[in-house]
Design goal:
The protein has helices at 10-19, 26-54, 60-87, 136-155, 164-186, 191-195, 203-221, 226-230, 237-256, 264-292, 297-311, 320-344, 346-350, 357-375, 378-384, 399-431, 438-443, 445-449, 465-468; strands at residues 90-92, 95-96. With 488 residues, it is mostly helical. The chain has a single domain (23-105, 136-443), classed as Ammonium transporter AmtB like domains (Ammonium transporter fold, Orthogonal Bundle), CATH 1.10.3430.10. It has a two-stranded antiparallel sheet. A hairpin with a 2-residue loop joins β1 and β2 (95-96). α11 packs parallel to α14 (357-375) and α14 (357-375) packs antiparallel against α16. The protein is globular, with a radius of gyration of 25 Å. GO terms for molecular function: ammonium channel activity. This is Ammonium transporter. Belongs to the ammonia transporter channel (TC 1.A.11.2) family. It comes from Oldenlandia corymbosa var. corymbosa.
Length: 488
């Protein structure tokens, strides 16, 4: 029996039509919003939990808060001026004009990538810029969470000693003068985009930049206290794994959302991301077993991250077999630089990169960009890239040129971040200390925030061996007649 027809008020019909115009691709828009949410969850709570758990107990609150603060600060800066510097009208070949991105309700096709490719001799259009059919607000938010996670990844290099006020100042400055340059140059129509350098989802814009800027900032801030450098155990390995799991699963949005459409590239990107991450994790773990006789849980997380980072610049542009190759290399080369080179290179020994962000993000990101220049499949490249006939070196033709472009593009990101991060740190140091005081370094969270991660004791409660002793809940352990644990 047919259902009765529903009478829709005229006013409601009009509102519905305005909210869903003919040009809107609801499927693409839904996937873009989901992807943005997944990337946001990588930071809050993903990296907040991971950072708060992987550090020494006395730095749990400070480390988690640095990530929490950076996310909020980037959101406001992004919509106020930084989005347009990354994806707006060209100011310089590597930088866009600053401006607000508030109330963006119109078709993104009109403003996403205004610069198009004119490589033909007669000046005609070779390949049009990306033009998804959904509101600007979707793009602004999607790119916002990318910018936020970049600053949070960078924070991993300076955990456990950076002055929190200096960090609060550093975040908007670095976003403005470093991140926006890489984003515009490679994604927003800048000179590297025009030239055809491949960065599918941020291997250069996010990971290479955060890794280089992180180790540069670590140099300027200085090392942790001697005690912290010698012994820095994670305060909660299980919670660290929970944060790592959010990071891994959230990468489906990180790489799957970057074609700006729910298409073939996005499906390939999600599958390849998981293939590479799993392979890299296993390779890193087996190297730990072979050389150190124990599978390290932290090492497994590092291997997972290097795999996710390495596949990022080419996630939707390579075949599954290439993702395995990239996983093998991302699980071994960063392992070698972290476990062997770092311990023997005096310069790296002097710089205290707390979580090894240089190895897990800069090395893995640059490696991924180079491998994309070798393994990028021609048909997949043509679905995504602004320059036609792009291909990896193993496919012949102009592949060697692409490999060269990848090296040059990575070199620009490295050089810019070294110089600009140094300038920012130097200017901040003229106003306030970059590093905490020795007293704060000794005490930790309680001195910096007046808060501690774990309230193990009640207000004013004293340690009582009958209540808090190691065997206080073990009835099988011998006790004295007074009930106190007997020392044996």
């Amino acid at each position: 029996m047919a259902a009765a027809a529903t009478v829709v008020p005229v006013a409601y019909q009009a509102n519905t039509s305005a909210a869903v115009p003919d040009w809107l691709n609801k499927g693409d828009n839904a996937w873009q919003m989901i992807s943005a949410t997944l990337v946001g969850l990588q930071s809050v709570p993903g990296l907040v939990i991971l950072y708060g758990s992987i550090v020494k107990k006395k730095w749990a609150v400070n480390s988690a808060f640095m990530a929490f603060y950076a996310f909020a600060a980037v959101v406001l800066c992004w919509v106020t001026w930084a989005y347009k510097m990354s994806f707006g009208e060209k100011l310089l070949p590597f930088w866009g004009k600053a401006g607000p991105a508030l109330g963006q309700k119109f078709l993104i096709k009109q403003a996403l990538l205004p610069a198009t490719i004119h490589n033909h001799a007669d000046g005609s259009l070779e390949t049009p810029a990306a033009a998804p059919y959904y509101p600007m607000a979707s793009m602004v938010w999607f790119q916002c969470v990318f910018a936020a996670i970049t600053l949070i990844l960078l924070a991993g290099s300076v955990l456990g000693r950076m002055n929190i006020k200096a960090w609060m100042t550093f975040v908007p400055l670095w976003l403005t003068f470093s991140y926006t340059v890489g984003a515009f140059s490679l994604w927003g129509g800048g000179f590297l985009f025009q030239w055809g350098v491949i960065d599918y989802s941020g291997g250069y814009v996010i990971h290479l930049s955060s890794g280089i800027a992180g180790i540069t900032a670590a140099y300027w801030v200085g090392p942790r206290s001697k005690n912290d450098r010698e012994r820095f155990p994670p305060n909660n390995v299980l919670l660290m794994l929970a944060g790592a799991g959010l990071l891994w699963m959230g990468w489906a949005g990180f790489n799957g959302g970057d074609p700006y459409s729910a298409n073939i590239d996005s499906s390939m990107a999600v599958l390849n991301t998981n293939i590479c991450a799993a392979t890299s994790l296993l390779v890193w773990t087996w190297l730990d077993v072979i050389f150190f006789n124990k599978p390290s849980v932290i090492g497994a997380v590092q291997g997972m991250i290097t795999g996710l980072v390495c596949i990022t610049p080419g996630a939707g542009l390579v075949q599954g077999w290439a993702a395995i190759v990239m996983g093998i290399l991302s699980g071994s080369i960063p392992w070698f630089t972290m476990m062997i080179v770092h311990k023997r290179w005096t310069l790296l020994q002097k710089i205290d990169d707390t979580l090894g962000v240089f190895h897990t993000h800069a090395v893995a990101g640059f490696l991924g960009g180079i491998l994309t220049g070798l393994l990028g499949e021609p048909e997949l490249c043509n679905l995504f890239l602004p320059v036609t006939n792009s291909r990896g070196g193993v496919y012949g033709g102009s592949g060697g040129v692409q490999f060269f472009k990848q090296i040059v593009g990575g070199g620009f990101i490295i050089g810019w971040n070294l110089v600009v991060t140094s300038i920012i740190c130097f200017l901040i140091s003229l106003v306030m200390p970059l590093r905490m005081s020795e007293e704060m370094l000794t005490i930790g969270d309680d001195a910096v925030h007046g808060e501690e991660a774990y309230a193990l004791w009640g207000d004013g409660e004293k340690f009582d061996i009958t209540k808090h002793g190691f065997y206080s809940d073990d009835t099988s352990h011998p006790k004295t007649s007074t009930g106190a644990t007997q020392v044996v």
